[in-house]
Amino acid sequence: MRLHRLFLLVLLMLPVASFSAQAADKKPVPANLEPLPEALPPPGVIEANPADAPEITIVKKGETKVEEYRMHGELYMQKITPPHGTPYYLMKQEQEGGWSRFDGPAAPLVIPKWVIFRF
Known about the structure:
Strand order of the largest sheet: 1-2-3-4-5
CATH topology of the domain at 53-102: S-adenosyl-L-methionine-dependent methyltransferases
Structural class: alpha+beta
Radius of gyration: 35 Å
Shape: elongated
């Protein structure tokens, strides 16, 4: 019975507590307020350079389809689609190096090899 009375007392005191909290939150508004400046417009879209897109050449060798990807005239990747099975890719790891094959959804690990000096 005491528990019911305590619960009823707390329930009746909630509106009084919330009213006093709202009254404490109200602060006087200063008279020297100024509106915020207008927001800046979003930055423009950067136009893509069509020369940066790879050139794709499709070559049929029998029933096999070979797509050659070139950047600035240099062949860097080939996609081979055989008449049966799944397509696979041949990628060039180095400019003068050979080709490496990868089949999976993730690209192979490519270690950066920057040219610092040329003789």
